[in-house]
Amino acid sequence: MTVADNYIRDIATNGVYFKRGATDAVVQRNVIERVGEGGILVGFDISPEFFDLTENPGYFEAIRGIVRNNLIRDSGRAGLSLYASRDAIIANNTLLRTATSARRRSTLASLCRISTPSPAARAASIRAS
Asked: Measured over all CA atoms, what is the biggest interatomic distance in the chain, rounded to whole angstroms?
């Protein structure tokens, strides 16, 4: 699959994504703006029964995908994301005003609080080593 030289805008969900073990997909020279969810997703979530386990025993969503020279702006969630991807190349993309939805900001803030140990906890961990 190749997605090139497009102007994708005003989408309620994702701009472009490839999944289900997609191989050698190329997304290049696109302008993606004002999308409600993600701009470009390399891989996505799909049920295991849809995979060809002979070709893809590792359940990778995307294999050897290339995303280059795209402009992504004003996305509600991540401008560019990888999900269960293998050997992806991401190069020379420009992202402006991404992950702007209040729901996404709230999720990111929660994750940061959960995954970031306090300075005292970090110091204790270093002393214990």
From this structure: 54
Q: Nearest 5°: phi and psi at 15? A: -70, -60
pLDDT in tens, 63-113: 888 999 999 999 988 888 888 788 888 999 999 988 888 655 444 444 444
Residue type, 65: G
Angle at 71 between CA 70 and CA 76, to 5 degrees: 120
Please state the domain extents for the chain: 2-98, 102-129
Contact predicate 71/27, CB 8 Å: no
CB 59, CB 35: distance < 8 Å: no
Q: How many residues does the chain have?
A: 129
Prediction pTM value: 0.71
Sign (positive or negative) of CA dihedral 108, 110, 115, 119: positive
